[in-house]
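Co-fold these.
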Amino acid sequence: MPELPEVETIRLGLQRYIVGKKIEGVEVRLPKIVSGDPKNIIGAKVVDVRRFGKGLVTDLDNGYSIAIHIKLTGQLIYKGTEAAKETEETKVSIDKIGGELPNKWTHAIFKIKNQKSKIKNTRLQLPSAKADGGQASQKSKVGNDGNAYLYYNDVRQFGWIKIVKTSDVQKLAFFKDLGPEFLNNLTMIQFNNIVSSSNSLIKPLLMDQKKMSGIGNIYANDALFEARIDPRRKAKDLSDTEIETLYNAILKVLKDGLKYGGATEINFVNVLGQEGGYQDHFLVYGREKQPCRVCKTPIQKIKLGGRGTYFCPKCQK
DNA sequence: AGCTGTACCTGCAGGC
DNA sequence: TGCCTGCAGGTACAGC
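Predicted complex below.
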């Protein structure tokens, strides 16, 4: 599912493709997922794309920001001439997510103005218009108008887009209550304090965004395997050594996830519509009855805190 | 206060 | 074949 590595993968893509560009228009197709007034972002230039836990914040130069949470099935896909060229080069097609955009799961569309002043874009645009041969432009709105489109798709409609003043982003409930984050500001000592003082089971605790942010079901399962810790253990029963091992295991699986461009379980894709690769490297997640990568014992699946939980009954103590 | 269970929503797999 | 049920999961919220 979209967790820290997946959302960071999207952030890196947005950073590359929309920073410095102007938002020309917004089309809201499913009003319930959008709050705030879209008029407030029209004409503004994107200055930064930040991430807090699994949340994304796109800052504009007029004092407004677009906060986005993709939850389980949200996608942010950028279609512009320079991105079309790169997609073609990597031989991965938007067809992976069902072909033409917008589709029936497209709930919001941002029209982005390509800035011709950018040398990098100019270089990519010229050959791509030729290389497309009309193919890409027939399939989507990547046109000769120099505009690009950022599509928000979400099959399950769980995600949200909030248009708020930049100064109010941290007042939104999700960001206000967010715990410290792995790969950023969550230290070993802090992690130890949180774990050793919690009455819950270790696995649900790792996924509690108010205690610590960034981890979801995939990386919680894999990190506990990496640390050889049984997900059913009570958090406060872990020894200092085990907590340290777990902390390092979490950093490792998150970095691995990021290295492979995230995990595509249902329909995660990056901003170019490409799938991630970490699903091919799952340690235990989704591997019920398959042999443990270490000892060959079949991986067991149980339910913990209402969530599917995978572990090796022999390796994890 | 802190923890647990359930709703939200849709597509898909499995059973009959 | 096709309907029905159950399941997947990040977060919000109700309830204990």
